[in-house]
Amino acid sequence: METNADNMHVIMRFSWERIPGESAKAYAAFCAYRDYGIDRSITKVLQRYHEKYGSRPLLSRWSQRYDWVKRCHDYDVHIEKEFRRELHSEYLDMTRRHLSQAKLMQEKALEALETIDPTTLTNLDLLRYLEIGMKLEKDMIILAHTHDGLHSIDNDQTGPDPIGKRLSAEMLERTKRLLGERDEESYPQSEV
Q1: How far apart are CA 35 and CA 28, in angstroms?
Q2: In angstroms, how far is the first alpha carbon of the chain from the final one?
Q3: Residues 6+ apart with CB under 8 A from 161
Q4: 78-81: which pairs have CB atoms within 8 A and are 24 or more residues apart?
Q5: Residues 6+ apart with CB under 8 A from 25
Q6: Cα-only R_g, the chain
């Protein structure tokens, strides 16, 4: 970052941009080096651009004088942040889209459920509807808890919330028991 004392303006500059005193040729060689990414090396730049940028001693001097390694590190960190920012944005878009689709599916399913005579449903059907509804609800709560799916949840745990998972399992087990008792009361033992 540079400041202009006369105007007190702050000029933001990234370290991987051309720096004062760096010739156009030296900067072009740096860019070639930088753009090799994780596999970058002076040897690779020489192999590809020998005619353009000259000798190994010259590139080594430029690399040292203009701090290529540090500048490339700064550049890599910047690219990683930009990638994560874009990935996060894509994730949020996907989550909104999936949530919208899930709501639409729920609306359609509820419309269809309203036309079903509940007396025609078996206890197994009811249990299946309940199980699916609980799973969807739990998944959405866990998703909200993890915020963006890219970070672990509270207390540096990974995966679903263990308390929520346990409560959901307990609710499901109680429901199965209740429906099992209802089966035994409603139907003769041979049909259960």
Answers
A1: 10
A2: 76
A3: 141, 142, 145, 153
A4: 78/14, 78/16
A5: 53
A6: 31
Of 51, 74, 54, 52, the C-alpha closest to 62 is 54
Strand blocks (E) in the chain: 2-4, 9-11
- Residue 107, H or E segment: helix 68-115
* pLDDT score recorded for residue 172: 66
pTM summary value: 0.51
Q: Going by C-beta distance under 8 Å and a sequence separation of 6 or more, which residues neighbour residue 88?
A: 148, 150
Buried b (16+ CB within 10 A) or exposed e, 63-83: beebebeebbeebeeeeeeee
Cβ-contact 84, 150 below 8 angstroms: yes
Tokens of 99: 């949530």
Q: Crossing angle for the helix pair 123-146 and 68-115, nearest 10 degrees? A: 150
Amino acid, single-letter form, for residue 172: L
Residue that the structure tokens 């007190």 belong to: 8
Tell me the backbone φ, ψ of residue 46, rounded to 5 degrees.
-65, -40
- pLDDT interval class at 191 (50, 70, 90): very low
**Token pair recorded at residue 31:** 């860019």
pLDDT of amino acid 87? 93
